[in-house]
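ok so for the tutorial part 2 we go from a plain amino acid sequence to predicted structure tokens. step 1 is just haveing the sequence, like this:
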Amino acid sequence: MELANNWKDYEILDMASGEKLERWGNITLIRPDPQIIWKAKTFPNMWKKANAKYNRSNTGGGNWEYNNNLPKAWQIKYKNLTFNIKPMGFKHTGLFPEQAVNWDWMINKIKDSKREIKVLNLFAYTGGATVACLSVGASVCHVDSSKGMVSWAKENVISSNLQDRKVRYIVDDVIKFVNREIRRENKYDAIIMDPPSYGRGTNGEVWQFEENIFDLVNLCTKVLSDNPLFFLINSYTTGISATVLENILKMNIKYKGKFSSGEIGLPMSNSDIVLPCGIFGRWEK
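step 2 — the prediction. this is what the tokens look like for a chain of 285 residues:
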């Protein structure tokens, strides 16, 4: 497992009974996590000081319970990157800190290439990977079907002082956009995707991971340049093995290079316990 263990502004303080106690800068939150099936709290007193807790509803969804003064938004840094954090519906904060594993990997790949890399970031959310790639001089096409998420990504790019870099923001259904890029003969040196388990596009198009991921990867190979650098799939879809993602890449990518896959995770502070947080499949030159 690859661990996101270089954070200073984020840490898991404790985990028990389906919940994690996290520090985001100087704010502490309690949020649910289905992987945490053990019962014992390691540091029970810490939990009382949380600024907010997300309570799941039995009927789906849930709500935030604010215990102490909680700002509507605040910022945290990862190395030289700055992100805007906001408690959202359905427990999210606009950032998945475990993704620092992938940010570090793509930053190193782009740096080591010593050339300008054109990146296509699909299902790009609030732009963690976009900010990471821009920070080392890549140009990025950021695609997400949610207008709100694309606006948030712009905020993160500006907060990281990268607004003068080459970035294009697209609010569109990913499959429709890639098909248009094929017709335009636009090519990319690197492709990043973080597809949801289930979703709907701008015009009600249904996305289902197991049904659609193979065809999407195949489609995306048609916009790879003649000298591509990497292809990364990240997934949180329950029940899918990381090896499946690696297999899909092997079946679709015909360039020479290295294939790999695995889990990413977050360490708990003052402990040897690790929280698994999703899987990846990678092809790299």
